[in-house]
């Protein structure tokens, strides 16, 4: 009986998660968006052909922009997260470490409350409509998440390992580089995916700080299809949404093999 | 020159809920070069903290640690661990899980910037000494407990330190392997001539390994001496009760007068002592120094036959005793008298 409920629950959950995606893919291939309301159903590649090759829509450019911004900001964020998390887990007093959740405070601000101010700063610096403005904001905004994920993991690495490295003559940085970093691979991989996804899907900053195709990311580009034709081009939107899932999926598949537990097995009993 | 001199060390730990805990309360002792020095004590007596202080992982609140004539630890000085010419084996082994056995042993040498050829030579040597040459390419996760222990020891040895600290290195190994590893550690210490400072709560380990034994209790040193000397002549009831299996019987008796002379009495056994009437005297009797004969002063409450030895538990005269017999015909519920061959008075 318990098993039955479990399976039923899982089925429901699967349908709940997958249905919109299936629908999205389905719609991206259909000629007429009204078929759900009784229109004709005819399948076509036209949506894909248009967004990829038509002169008016530079979807390919958006994808490249997105990959550059997300890839770099996730990297930068990760690069900063590991040392912060390590420092927090090893050197914060027991009192202070109870407040690590405050780190997440910055992400609790609605982005809209800062975007105006940031725009002024970036204008003054002359970096509006550059990758830099997006990478900097995305890194800052995703850093707490990275620190949080890395902290949870580094906390689990036995402290005897650090002490052992210290006695073996490795200072703080060499311990981090030779011991903690390689041991943190699984967490780095999961954190990278999360940070990448955050940046890849981020809309508000990307919308505000970009002006033309040269820097627009996928979410902004897709949102702007609407204005392009006066009516909502559902086919294009669905096709680009389907395509934008691809790089992320490939990334997850590639990183999956690193996300294995038990890497510290054998170190301590 | 004393090799390692620990002088009046005090250390307080701050823990979240319990507030301040004074872990070490004025610990002093000397270790000579090439000695196998064992620190024995129940858990929580401060022995691991002491080891951390010597390693340089913590700093004392008061007192000094002098290693080969140089002050390495004091409230003001803390020479970093790798400049102390020592290495440490942890209770948890603390091997680097992502490195092979070879990598683990190479790490301290790499950090010390030893050249590649020399590194390889030393690792091969130590691996041979520890009989782990066939494991050099394995990862720690592929090894058994005993093998991991050897690797941890190997990593400590390749540096050729003048002092090796060991924090309960055998406590995670099962009993049958423990004895083997014990012999192994002793052999390696003899062959390398390195000074070992070994912390344990296992008295058999301590007795078997130590050239010199230090017993600690609640942050204080109870007694220091050669193991047999400490066993035979414990200075405090705690040491008496802690060493030996079963432990020494420690009982407190009042002096009484018989024919005008002071005596103490335990069941049927009486013994002349010095002291005023009514004074409490604490005596310790090793189980093997009690022999049983037919009588009525003590009731046998329990009998444990362990191979060729029998532990007989007695109750009577307001105390509980344990006696150790060879063979033995004691039966539960029987009544006996005792004879005491040797005992010790604690002042």
Describe this structure in words.
The complex is a heterodimer of chains A (269) and B (347). Chain A is an all-alpha fold. Chain A is built from 13 helices and no strands. Chain A has helices spanning 2-28, 46-53, 59-91, 94-97, 105-108, 112-125, 131-154, 159-167, 172-183, 185-201, 204-209, 218-229, 234-256. The longest helix of chain A is centred in the N-terminal third of the chain and has 33 residues, at 59-91. Chain B is α+β, with helices and mostly antiparallel strands and 347 residues long. In chain B, the strands form 5 sheets. Chain B has a 6-stranded mixed beta sheet with strand order 6-7-8-3-9-10, with helices on both faces. The longest helix of chain B has 18 residues, at 175-192. Chain B has helices at residues 47-55, 101-111, 116-130, 145-158, 175-192, 203-209, 227-232, 237-242, and strands at 4-15, 19-31, 36-40, 62-67, 70-73, 86-89, 163-167, 195-200, 212-217, 220-225, 249-254, 256-258, 261-266, 269-272, 280-285, 290-306, 309-316, 319-326, 335-340, 344-346. Chain B has 2 domains: 4-242, P-loop containing nucleotide triphosphate hydrolases (Rossmann fold); 249-346, Nucleic acid-binding proteins (OB fold (Dihydrolipoamide Acetyltransferase, E2P)). Chain B contains 8 helices and 20 strands. In chain B, 25% of the residues lie in helices and 39% in strands. The interface between A and B is medium-sized, with 26 and 34 residues.
For the structure shown, list the relevant keywords.
heterodimer; A: 269 residues; mainly alpha; MetI-like fold; 2 domains; 13 helices; B: 347 residues; alpha+beta; Rossmann fold; OB fold (Dihydrolipoamide Acetyltransferase, E2P); 6-stranded mixed sheet; 39% strand; elongated
What is the strand and helix layout of this fold?
The complex is a heterodimer of chains A (269) and B (347).
Chain A (H helix, E strand, L loop, with lengths): L1 H27 L17 H8 L5 H33 L2 H4 L7 H4 L3 H14 L5 H24 L4 H9 L4 H12 L1 H17 L2 H6 L8 H12 L4 H23 L13
Helix pairs in contact in A: 1-13, 2-13, 3-7, 3-10, 3-12, 7-10, 8-9, 10-13, 12-13
Chain B lengths: L3 E12 L3 E13 L4 E5 L6 H9 L6 E6 L2 E4 L12 E4 L11 H11 L4 H15 L14 H14 L4 E5 L7 H18 L2 E6 L2 H7 L2 E6 L2 E6 L1 H6 L4 H6 L6 E6 L1 E3 L2 E6 L2 E4 L7 E6 L4 E17 L2 E8 L2 E8 L8 E6 L3 E3 L1
Parallel strand pairs in B: 3-8, 3-9, 6-7, 7-8
Antiparallel strand pairs in B: 1-2, 1-4, 4-5, 9-10, 11-15, 12-13, 13-14, 15-20, 16-17, 16-19, 17-18
Helix pairs in contact in B: 2-3, 2-4, 3-4
